[in-house]
Every structure is written in structure tokens, then in C-alpha cells.
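Exercise (ungraded).
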Amino acid sequence: MPELPDVELFRRHLDTSCHGRTILSATVADPKLLSGIDAAQLARRLAGTRIGASRRHGKHLFVAVGDAGWLGLHFGMNGSLLHLAPGDADPSYDRVRIDFADGHGLAYLNPRRIGEVVLVDDPDAFAAAERLGPDALDPKFERADFERRLAGTRRELKALLMDQAAVAGIGNIYSDEILFQARLHPSRRSDRLDAAERRHLWEQMRAVLETAVAAGAGAERLTERLPSRCLIPQRKRDGRCPRCGAAIAAAKFGGRTGYFCPRCQPQGG
DNA sequence: TTAAGTGTTGCTCT
DNA sequence: AAGAGCAACACTTA
């Protein structure tokens, strides 16, 4: 679930609730989520540092932790981040917990334990090493670059949008929404769009993600906070197209189930 | 009760 | 180059 909008909302939640707090201790309940560092090392390096700036690249969140560098978090399929006020009970699936000197806390939750917690010196270097493409909402990411990426491969649009090496931040759910708003069939080939389609896809990619973030459409209030013109609330059996009322179709694209409107997103384009 | 399905990613094989 | 299949995991749904 955590795609770019979800992770961006985690980042803002972290900023407003934890920025400036000093870490008293870090507790790792599930060492398997750590990468490149063991639980004792992580705890030792985090202790005494202060939460600074935060950054996001695609679905990865980075938090500055003083001279320890940056704490990097990936949320896998259903991870999340939760601020704990003094006295709050420890939530379920709390895999890494940070306790601050002032009694507050921060919990990295991950029920399915698919995700990653790292400590890095340089988020940009980490993103490069992970082969992440440009963040989908990065102001420095330009349309011409996106269009080159479309033209440079013969892949299906849905697979390309979900490829973190092509564009970072989009997953199964938001790729469906972006293609629906752009009125493009998920299996259209990326190198066969005309100029107007390429531009439309770019504009809808930005608009959909920006709208979701602005609406606060995170994990919990996803469907209720999105505008009524959105496909996402209809991503289910017996879903109806919010534009034309046709039955929403489901099919496998690159091994993932995608939902689309067969009438608004014709195969031929 | 049981089994298939699921928002992610990385690996192998073709 | 790119897609299929699978594995990691725990929970929900049929």
C-alpha cells in the first residue's frame, strides 16, 4: 500500500510530531527488517542523536539523525509510521521503536514484515545504488526526461509506471489511477504514445499524486478523501467507472492485478 | 476450515 | 530486453 502519497504523508507526520526530539533509545523487535546493520549497532548509533530534516525519494523515507547520518525506511506492502505520545500503548506490529528523551516515541510498524530499515550517510547515494529513477513529484524531474523514458522502451505502460528504476514512487494502486485519468489502457506500449498522450500521461501522473497528498489520502482514509472522479474507490468487484458508469474491468498486467475502465481506456488508444 | 488473494521487491530463468 | 514465476510474510476474503 505505501506508495508515494502514503510515504509523503508519513514524512509530514514525522516532521510535525518528532522533529527536534532527542533519541533516548531504539528497540528492534524484528532484526530481519534491518539491512546492513545489526540491532545493537543501530541502537548504539541512534542513541543521543536528534531528529532533523526528512526527505523522501519514491517510496523511501529518510530522516536525519545527527552524526549517525540518515535513517532510511521502506514500508513494503503495509508498513507505516506512528508517533507515540507519552503514555500511549505500544501498537501492534511495532518492529522498530524509537523512544525520545522527553517521553514521546516513534514506531515503525510492519505487519507483514516486508520492508527495510537502513542507516546511510547519503540518501542520494543510496537512491543511486538502489537504481531508483527520479522521484515522480521531484520539481527537478522534467517532462522531457519522462518522455525519453517512455520512448526508450517497449514495455506496457502499467509495468513501466510501477518500475522504480523508471520513475520512483508509483505502485499498483496509483498506476491504475494515473492511467485512468490519462485515459490510457494499461497495456498500451510506452513507445507508441503520440505527443498528446505522452504529455497527458505526464500531467496526470503529477496531478494524481499531488491531489492524493493534498487530500491526505493515506492508508486509512484512502477512498473517502479522494475526489469522486477517482477510480481508486471503484477498484473492486462490481466497481463502476466514475466517468461513464461502465463496469470496471480487472486483469493481470505484469503479474499484478490492474483495474481499468474498458470504455474510457480503450485498448487501441 | 482451508486456500487463494494481496497494496512490494528482488531473484532466477527463459 | 523484458516477462514469468517464485519467495519473503501475515492477514483478509471466498
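Further reading is listed at the end of the chapter. For now, observe: Chain A has a mean pLDDT of 95. Residues 241 and 248 of chain A are 6 Å apart (CA to CA).
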